[in-house]
Design a protein that fits this description.
heterodimer, A: alpha/beta, GMP Synthetase, Chain A, domain 3, 2 domains, nine-stranded mixed sheet, four-stranded mixed sheet, 36% helix, B: 3 domains, five-stranded antiparallel sheet, 12 strands, elongated, disordered N terminus
């Protein structure tokens, strides 16, 4: 008994607690200042970090800004801003990077997230389109909704409208490691059209997807193309699609199930083409005077819907080729489906991607409510 | 007990000397048959039924017609033994110490000085507590009788439930001065004879002044007296007692203690209640699982709170963390002090309300828990979260049916908090490992304490966690090595 008990008590040594007591890591819960949103900006030399604290409902968060040569140092300097409290990053939900900082050294910032113990890889990553993270954090939010809450709400909105997706730092790091580029949710500060008395005039708005690369390239996809990305990556849950019925009226459909299959067509070791098959089922929401029972009308609407989606998909693929980045990870999908043939491709995938032919087919099924 | 005084020749004087300065000892001289033959009558007032003594012993003894031809004590004794005096239970004694023992057990003695002989009659007082409902083991669906302090009543309660002649009751007298009657109860043909033998040996070895409290028995017959975990099942309920006898356990009944003891006790057995067999098996299984979960919660919850509040704050959902911070911001004590303080206060409250008369005890509970607790939270002496944590741990502890196990787990709870205080969740894991290790080393009369979990059989472990439909559970607990494994066809 004594020997076993002694062994169990020595177990902390195996966990790296041999040199110092775990007790030294003790932090009293009420002495913590929770940071929920971190913003990173850079002018090429100094890194500016902005942090918004977590607060209870109805209270405005504290926003702190510091600058240093590294992110870690800048965040460390924030400690001086709080009286007795310890800055705690374990509850950081959002990591915002200004467009300029993303162009400077995105990898450095992702490395920071990867290595610092407190910040989790599940932290959401955003690129602030056309602006600085610092300004967005400072401007956006009020006592009704903090910047963190607005970003949470934005994430839910994107999912419910299938117009984008918020990727986590971990997902972005993984995508970057594979293809050298990644999609990141883009946001921007926007003025509220109708201001309620006393409310902050700014809010945060989705700005499609940003494409970031290892080389510091940052490109943006608008909302229309972001929808196509969601369609291609099977991230579409529900959306409303409006099409003209050909008689001057509009018909609206609710997107049901969507599925896209990407299959490579090889001839020996040569990649002939990539077949993209998208199946969409929609249900009628508003038809006005359109006689949906008429088979001709139905066929017309089906065609219109397919044309709309096809156009979006083609534009995204064209854009991908244009910027020479496979941000849709088509290469990765081919590798998963045909690993042997993919490894035997003559050139590297980046070269192959420039010339690859896409055969796209969209089929639409209209379900009646 | 009275050896030094009662070893002389058997006379009334010897008995009187033995009981000198005993106010409740009564003796007198009577003339047998109203003649010249004299005999001494003695008994202990309160232990005997005085009406029975007068009607069934003294009146026939002094009846002239009945004893007119008797000339010697020997003849009188013979007549008494053949039924001239009415008694269902009588015995001829030739030693003073035999008479003394009979007297303290509620007998009345007729002493014939010249023959140095006595006849003792069982005329015990009928004054005893009525069989009532169990106090500490509430019955929802089942028989509502409970053991009382009288040994014979308790054996009758068991006999009424197990009427077969294979129910054996071996009686002992334990305690140098108390001479307490102890009965070893088992079912012949089911119980492992080795288990009965061991129990008899251990009880026979008890050499104490008095067997007056349950601890007097437990401490002397368990294998591991240093563990706080109970190794003997105690129950007030005869139905639970009999169920365990049928399972192959050995029961012990002690005169003066309103409870039965069952050996060997295992961890799984302390979590069970007789109601498990009274309800539907799905409901009973769910409740059994709930009790096991409660064991984990009651032991680990305060420790887990201390660990995450002091070391692993990232584990708490953000909104909850903000609420905890807000509620704790003005509290002057650290989390550890708060939790330990509340745990100790909880124990004090429980102890206070336990030892007070019921209405006062309830008042203490209300004042302590509601008034003081509420005021302490409002005065920001303690945070409401800690109150919730400690109260949850306390309440879940009450789902454990056995009070002794519950007390042991309360002790563990405190140790777990200390482990969490110094090493966070890692400390809790170490404490859990040590606890499991400790429990696994305990053996009660050769039966592993953690049986069936320690046996490595998934099926048998599942049977402890889940109550199977009774027609499907045809076998007795194999760890008890019963003589007959089948409990039904």
């Amino acid at each position: 008994m004594k020997r076993i008990a002694a062994l169990v008590l020595l177990l902390p040594m195996l966990a790296g607690c041999g040199t110092q007591s775990i007790y030294s890591e003790y932090r009293e819960i009420d002495n913590l200042e929770l940071i929920q949103t971190i913003g990173i900006d850079s002018d090429g030399e100094l890194v500016t970090t902005t942090a918004a604290t977590g607060v209870k409902k109805g209270t405005e968060p504290t926003v702190m800004t510091t600058s240093a040569r590294t992110v870690n140092q800048a965040l460390n300097e924030m400690q001086g801003y709080t009286s007795k409290k310890y800055i705690f990053f374990g509850h950081t939900r959002n990591f915002l990077i200004g467009e300029e900082a993303a162009r400077c050294d995105i990898e450095q910032y992702l490395e920071f997230v990867e290595k610092i113990a407190d910040v989790r890889l599940t932290t959401n990553l955003f690129i602030v389109k056309g602006g600085m993270a610092k300004d967005l954090i400072a401007e956006v939010g009020n006592e009704r909704a903090t910047v963190t809450e607005l970003l949470e709400s934005l994430e839910q909105d994107l999912e419910s409208t299938s117009s984008g997706k918020v990727f986590t730092c971990g997902e972005v790091i993984e995508r970057m490691a594979f293809g050298g580029c990644s999609l990141v949710a883009a946001i921007e500060a926007a003025e509220i059209e109708e201001i309620v008395s006393g409310a902050n005039p700014y809010t945060v708005r989705a700005a499609g997807f940003a494409i970031i690369t290892e080389e510091g390239k940052v490109e943006f996809l608008d909302m229309e193309l972001s929808r196509a990305v969601c369609l291609l990556l099977n991230m579409t849950d529900s959306d409303i699609i409006e099409v003209a019925n050909g008689q001057g009226d509009w018909v609206s459909f609710r997107l049901g199930q969507c599925h896209t299959e990407i299959k490579p067509v090889f001839s020996d070791t040569k990649l002939e083409s990539v077949n993209i098959q998208t199946d969409i089922s929609v249900s009628l929401d508003e038809s006005y005077d359109t006689d949906i029972q008429d088979p001709e009308v139905e066929a017309f609407l089906q065609e219109e819907l397919a044309r709309l989606q096809l156009g979006r998909i083609e534009k995204v693929l064209e854009f991908s080729k244009q910027i020479d980045e496979d941000f849709l990870e088509i290469g990765r999908m081919i590798e998963i489906s045909e690993p042997v043939k993919f490894s035997k491709l003559v050139g590297d995938w980046k070269e192959e991607f420039k010339t690859v032919r896409f055969d796209i087919q969209v089929s639409v099924d209209i379900e009646r409510n | 007990m009275f050896g030094c005084l009662s070893k002389g020749k058997l006379t009334l004087k010897t008995i009187e000397t033995t009981f000198s300065n005993c106010g409740d000892f009564k003796s007198r001289i009577i003339c047998v048959g109203g003649g010249k033959l004299k005999a001494g009558v003695c008994f202990i007032d309160g232990l005997v039924n005085s009406e029975l003594v007068s009607r069934d012993i003294l009146r026939p003894l002094t009846d002239e017609d009945r004893f007119k031809n008797v000339t010697s004590g020997r003849e009188a004794i013979n007549m008494i033994l053949t039924g001239s005096v009415y008694s269902y239970s009588l015995k001829d004694c030739s030693k003073a110490e035999e008479v003394v023992e009979a007297l303290v057990n509620g007998f009345c003695a007729i002493v014939f000085d010249q023959q140095h002989e006595a006849v003792v009659f069982e005329v015990q007082s009928g004054e005893k507590r009525a069989v009532g409902e169990p106090v500490s083991e509430k019955v929802v669906k089942g028989s509502r009788d409970a053991f009382v302090e009288t040994f014979r009543v308790n054996t009758s309660l068991v006999r009424k439930k197990l009427r077969g002649p294979d129910l054996k009751i071996i009686e002992y007298s334990v305690g140098r001065r108390s001479k307490t009657k102890v009965g070893i109860v088992y079912v012949d043909g089911i119980t492992n004879p080795e288990l009965v033998e061991q129990t008899m040996r251990r009880i026979g070895k008890i050499d104490i002044d008095g067997l007056l409290a349950p601890g007097n028995l437990e401490d002397y017959i368990v294998d591991n007296p240093n563990t706080p975990f109970p190794q003997i099942i105690t129950t007030e309920r005869p139905d639970k007692f009999c169920m365990n006898l049928l399972e192959g356990r050995v029961g012990i009944l002690v005169d003066g203690l309103p409870m039965g003891f069952l050996l060997p006790g295992t961890f799984a057995q302390f979590i069970k209640v007789p109601e498990d067999n009274a309800g539907h098996y799905l409901v009973a299984s769910a409740l059994t699982l709930l009790r096991y979960i409660s064991v984990l919660i009651t032991v680990c919850f305060p420790a887990f709170y201390v660990a995450i509040a002091m070391y692993h704050q990232e584990m708490i959902p953000t909104n909850l963390m903000l609420a905890i911070i807000e509620s704790k911001e003005n509290v002057p004590f650290s989390t550890a002090i708060e939790v330990l303080g509340m745990l100790v206060a909880f124990e004090i409250l429980q102890e206070a309300s336990l030892h007070l008369p019921q209405p006062v005890g309830e008042t203490v509970g209300i004042i302590g828990a509601l008034v003081v607790g509420q005021s302490a939270v409002e005065a920001q002496v303690i945070s409401p979260v800690v109150v919730i944590v400690v109260a949850t741990a306390g309440i879940t502890g009450y789902t454990i049916p056995d009070q002794d196990l519950s007390a042991a787990l309360r002790l563990c709870r405190l140790l777990f908090v200390f482990a969490a205080l110094f090493m966070g969740v890692f400390g809790i894991v170490i404490a859990l490992l040590l606890l499991v290790y400790h429990l696994s080393t305990i053996e009660v009369m050769g039966v592993p304490y953690m049986t069936p979990f320690a046996e490595g059989s998934l099926m048998r472990s599942a049977k402890a966690l889940i109550r199977w439909p009774l027609p499907a559970s045809k076998e007795r607990d194999i760890s008890l090595h019963p003589q007959d494994m089948q409990n039904q066809r």
